[in-house]
Amino acid sequence: MLKLTFLGHSCVYATDGKYKLIIDPFLEGNPQANVSPEEIDVDYILATHGHADHLGDSVEISKRTGATIIAPNELAVWVTRKGAKAHNMHIGGSYKFPFGKVKLTIAHHGSAAGESGLEYTGNPCGFVFTMGGKTVYHTGDTGLFLDMKLIGETNPIDLMFLPIGDNFTMGVEDAVRAVQFVKPKIAVPMHYKTWEIIDAEPDDFARKLQGSGVKVVILNPNQTLEI
Ligand code: NI
Ligand code: MN
Questions:
Q1: Which of 40, 131, 213, 218 is the residue whose CA sits 20 to 30 A from 224?
Q2: What is the pLDDT along the chain (227 residues), one digit of tens a residue?
Q3: For the domain that residue 143 is a member of, what is the CATH number?
Q4: Which residue from 90, 88, 86, 93 is spatially nearest to 67, judged by alpha carbons?
Q5: Which of 41, 24, 7 is nearest to 224 (CA)?
Q6: What separation in Å is there between the alpha carbon of 153 and the centre of ligand 1?
Q7: How far is residue 9 from each of residues 17, 34, 65, 127, 151, measured CA to CA in Å?
Q8: What is the total count of domains within the chain?
Q9: CB 157 within 8 A of CB 149
């Protein structure tokens, strides 16, 4: 059993009833989030990249709860220097944590953090992780890439979170193709409507995948899906 709660933008809270983790906890300043970082109590934080709308409140949550931030090496070093606890990984590598296995995938994007937004934090990533007997692929911010086919072939995906907002990431058309590459059982769109510039229609995404064999689930912020 795996319970996934969408917290807006690209933030997802996951629990198998024993362990708790959060992906890209952008809560403070997130117009879609109804939860404040102080309410978050987790064992692990998965951070795809350093951009403020993903790394978000990771450092604060780690410092308060003792949660380990799982991130690409350069970002892990950066958060460690800010006083957080981290587990450094890198793309293509996997590691077995108490809750399950985490593998870092490529993501075609950038990664920087800090007040200037220009402190280099290495390459961005996506995560394939297992928890509660399920396999989840959270792509992070990325453009479409053909290797998604390989990710789907080597790790049968129960649920895929992917951006559809365009401008910074894949738009609807490319996201539809990404789902066709990965062939997850369920696809959940993210990274849309947070701001006007990423005003994509999730219904449009769902409609384009009708008859594909993939179930599209549109989650509103704070909505939970059990798989
Ligand atoms: Ni980004
Ligand atoms: Mn983003």
A1: 213
A2: 999 999 999 999 999 999 999 999 999 999 999 999 999 999 999 999 999 999 999 999 999 999 999 999 999 999 999 999 999 999 999 999 999 999 999 999 999 999 999 999 999 999 999 999 999 999 999 999 999 999 999 999 999 999 999 999 999 999 999 999 999 999 999 999 999 999 999 999 999 999 999 999 999 999 999 99
A3: 3.60.15.10
A4: 86
A5: 7
A6: 26
A7: 24, 12, 23, 16, 23
A8: 1
A9: no
Q: What's the confidence (pLDDT) of residue 160?
A: 98
Distance, CA 53 to ligand 2 centroid (Å)?
A: 5
Closest by Cα among 118, 142, 130 to 190: 142
Nearest ligand for residue 108 CA: 1
- What CA–CA distance (Å, rounded) separates 129 from 183? 16
Where does 58-147 have alpha helices with state H?
58-65, 73-81
Using a cut of 0.90, tell me whether the model's pTM lies above it. Answer: yes
Exposure string over 87-121, b if 16+ CB within 10 A, otherwise e: bbbebeeeeebebbebbbbbbbbebbbeeeeeeeb
pLDDT at 38: 97
Cα-to-centroid distance, 211 and ligand 1 (Å): 31
CA of 51 to the centre of ligand 2 (A): 7
Question: What is the span of the domain harbouring residue 154?
Answer: 3-226
